Amino acid sequence: MHKFVFGWLIISLFLNACSEKKKSSDSKRVFNYNEMNGLSSLDPAAAGNFENIWPVNQLFNGLVQLDDSLNVVPCIAKSYFISEDGLKYTFHLRRDVYFHDDTCFVNARGRKVVAGDFVFSFSRLYDSRVSSALSLMTHFEQGNQGEKTGLVALNDSTLELRLSKPFNAFLSLLSMKYFSVIPHEALERYGDDFRKHPVGTGPFCFKHWEEGTKLVLLKNENYFEKDAQGRRLPYLDAVTVSFIRDRETAFMELLNGKFDMLSGADAFNINEVLDKEGNLRELYQSKFFLQKHTFLKTDYIGILVDTSLAVVKQSPLALKNIRKAVNHAFDREKLVRFLRNKIGTPALAGFIPKGSKSYDPKVVKGYSYDPDKVKTLLQEAGYPGGKGLPELTIHITDSYKEQAEFIQSQLAENNITANISVEKTSILRQAVNNGEYLLFKKSWFCDYADDENFMSLFYSKNFTPEGVNFFRYKNSLFDKYYEEALLVRDEQARKQLFNRMDSLIVEDAPCIPLYYDEVIRLVRHNVKGLGINAMNLLNLKTVRKD
Asked: What structural domains and CATH numbers belong to the chain?
């Protein structure tokens, strides 16, 4: 049976699983989108990438959430109080939030959410076998024997979170999907299968997931949020997610009306759909419209710089001047203009991307294309004209082959020889985490709306595999500024600290920033109310279909 026919049959048969209310088949309002990279889990503890985050955001809620301007606003917590010393956060919960109906509950009826559910949900994140959020939990207070003293349910409607030290970005951190609330009954019933049988509180509830084919979510008739007119959200009856890997096939489904949206520059042929200025070609303007927004995401080539590792000691990349030479040896502006049709901004101002509070190209001077500087830097490093410079290898996934070949060509013009090794995503990820590759293509998007999130990649206590310092970069002055930024509350003072950190990254060159990305979506004209934000978080609870 064709996958799309299958999806509609599922919806037709089970649309009322979250409610006894019947709807005629011609009134169904279903939002359909494609996720070409697949989906690995619907457990919020595994919500570490967009593929997982998007459906998890429809299924689960946390204490707080972000609006499209990235302001932290209440969600299940109707209000909160922060102690004067910044160490204690007290949350007062709504009393009208219920888990989705599910057979894990008595009489299969979802029960009310209480503060103890958050203690249970957050406690799971300490287990590295369950979640990759363990490093985030270091912000919470713990007893001398590792007791979780930072998680306290004072009563059913009051939650107290205690920190080990002040952390200004804590509320933004709590907006991450990791910190969603789940019921212990579902974990007890489904165990490891919770990843494919989620039970949450969100605007949509789970119905069916055929891995690699189709995910179906249905309207939660008991959802607690309402619009400005007092109408209960969401407006849609269902959401379906397909997993077509071939972008040409997915694009044809968009043209044929099977999909309501395609998202990301990799999801369609940008040369076919967009002109060289990044605008939608006239041919398609009657079919759909183009959504674009600044994206808090930096694409880069990482450089392993830990000289305690033999692979680094034996490489010319151990030399700062070689790392700088590579940074100056290709044209980021050409890369963005000709290979990405001007989607995004060339990374000419450090690692913190455009759209961030601390982004300031006048203060942080990054790398631009400069063959003369390349020549000088190679000379100073002891490789005049590139003579004797060993061959470098850039490890990438297939999606970035064209970009890597462009960089390879320009490096060659500047007497730097580079090979390209194309690998599976899982293999690349594991090798980078283990410190095996000297040059590797990655990207970093903002997990929570604070510039500290980007600088955390370079903090020496965050070395992989436990943390996110893939470069294994260490600089005591950087660490000093980073730790100060965790405590300072004044926004201007924090901005100055982040600018200093970013300038140190430019100077030490543990990475090669390529471009600051841009959220881009193709959306059919009958879709209304689809917001867009700098974190590219998909929010479907306010979407309508005409």
From this structure: 61-189 (3.90.76.10), 295-519 (3.10.105.10)
